Amino acid sequence: MSESIPTSTPKPTPTASWYERSAWIVVSAVFLLLAWRQHQFVNQHAVNILFWDQWDFYAPLFREGSLWEIFKQQHGPHRQGLGFLLTDLLTHLSGWNSRWDAFGVSFVLIFAGLLGLLLARRCGARGISLVTIPLLFLNIRQYEMFVNASNISHGAMPMLLFMALLLCLFIERDALRLLAISLLTFLAIFTGFGIFVGLVIPMVLVVQMIQHWRQNEKQRALSVLLALVAIGAAWALFSVGYRFDPAVSDYRFPYEKPWEYFYFIAAMLNNFHGMQTQSLPVLIWGLTCTAFLGGLALFHGWRILRHGVLNERRSTVIFCLAAFSLIYGLNTAIGRVFSGWQEAGAASRYVTLMIPAGLAAYLHFATLNKAILARTLTIAYVCFLAYNTVELHTRDWRSINHYSEGRRAWKAAYLETRSEEQASERTHFQVYPAPVLGDRLRYLEAHRLNLFNSDAHP
Fold first, then answer.
1. What values do phi and psi take at 79, rounded to 5?
2. Widest distance between CA atoms in the chain
3. Which of 138, 187, 350, 427 is least surrounded by CB atoms within 10 angstroms?
4. Contact in structure between 322 and 293 (CB atoms under 8 Å)
5. Nearest alpha carbon to residue 194 among 204, 184, 202, 203
6. Is residue 452 part of a domain?
7. How far is CA 358 from the centre of its chain?
8. Total domains in the fold of the chain
9. Tens digit of pLDDT for each residue in 40-49?
10. Rounded to whole angstroms, how far apart are CA atoms 108 and 451?
11. Containing domain of residue 298, as a range?
């Protein structure tokens, strides 16, 4: 299985150097192609009108609140954090153009993908298999993040912060590494579903602290303890004013069919991999993927315990990725399973936060000791991703067109009638579940923002 990363690597032969350069050209070309396609998708389908949840989580912007109010804004079970500060900046630059939110999600995902490439390289992945990274991060199946209620804080910014944090594990200087980890964990806790990063990282730090203590490295153990205290303080600050909000009216726990929690996670992983039907073979595949993730977390967690966090940084990365995916998946299942695991588990918005699951699998495959096995598994995974995720299904396009055309039509109808009810009746579409937006629409009109900004793209 995988081993700790060597401190030095042999000098590459000319043939190896040529292969490495050629592989980087291919990987770069695929990355640029998928990034351009994503940009074009957003440009074609994003509409300049606030939609659904945006009317809610924009509340501190309507109130013209402070930066701290914006940062700590709670939406459903999470806070908005760093992603919402970026949203605030974009609103000031664009006149509240909702299309900029969608482009913001897109560009943050692109930057997260670039960090993902650096992380994969740092973990020892090489060659053409790195094409997996753009396939994971620029997966068009996350289209809901662009055409629905675009929220940079939900998944895109947590992925960027998570990749940056995992890269910090490779910093050699203890003080700098722990400072960076503490700061990024604080930001992750406050930013969308990065909240679960704040559960995974302390597990690693507790193990590291105990290992330093057992090796009689008391000063290093104390440094890790200080980082844990800082993360604990972040959690304490997060909890101030926090309210339990499952974001659905029919939430109940425990669910009367607890096995469906695992079905739900399986459906999330299947949808991430482009498998939408929930037939028995597909369900079994999803459950197998779920079990494999659990196996990755256990195996690499065992390596960390046996050899040490700092000696097994690659295993630490894979453990964190797998553990995050399982915790997020289980939390989502607990919060949504009663809505029907087949449909609810296949929501497009979950795809972004399943990226760590795919990345954990890829890094494990790519860094196996047996080169032939590693190459075979990574090529198979690349082909699987390319076949299933590069193109969308007819059902996906129906959903995309419903949101894009519906928002565009509602906007035109409202600008003509100045009536929420009439706009909804004419278009058979709603931008919010109830006609209660009067004050906010008047605010936007008075300041010539969002749909009332005639200079903005429709």
1. -95, 170
2. 75
3. 427
4. yes
5. 184
6. no
7. 12
8. 1
9. 999 999 999 9
10. 24
11. 15-242+256-397
For 369, counting Cβ atoms within 10 Å of its Cβ (0-12 exposed, 13-18 middle, 19+ buried), the class is: exposed
Phi, psi (degrees; rounded to nearest 5) at 171: -70, 130
CA dist., res. 1 & res. 370, Å (int):
8
User: Within a domain: residue 220?
Assistant: yes
Report yes or no: 105 and 147 within 8 Å, Cβ to Cβ: no
Q: Please, which residues bridge with residue 75 across strands?
A: 78
Structural domain contains residue 457? no
Query: 88 CB contacts (<8 Å, ≥6 apart)?
Result: 61, 67, 70
- Let me know if 292 is exposed, middle or buried by CB neighbors in 10 A (0-12, 13-18, 19+): middle
Residue 270, number of CB atoms within 10 A of its CB: 23
Joined tokens for residue 172: 């050699």
Contacts 24+ apart (CB under 8 A), 223-231: 223/174, 223/175, 223/178, 224/178, 226/178, 227/178, 227/179, 227/181, 227/182, 228/202, 230/182, 230/186, 231/182, 231/185, 231/186, 231/189, 231/198, 231/201, 231/202, 231/205
Structure tokens at 349: 């918005």
Per DSSP, the residues of 415-453 read HHH--HHHHHHHHT--SSSSS--HHHHHHHHHTT-GGG-
Residue 61 in tokens? 């912007």
Whether the CB-CB separation of 54 and 91 falls below 8 Å is answered with no
375-392 pLDDT tens trace: 999 999 999 999 999 999
pLDDT at residue 276, rounded to an integer: 77
Closest CA relative to residue 358, chosen from 383, 331, 385 = 385
Predicted confidence (pLDDT) per residue in 211-237, tens digit: 999 999 999 999 999 999 999 999 999
The two structure tokens encoding residue 180: 């960076």
| Residues 6 or more apart in contact with residue 455 via CB below 8 angstroms | 95
Distances (CA, A) of 202 to 93, 150, 239: 37, 30, 17
7 pLDDT above the threshold of 50: no
124 occurs within a structural domain = yes
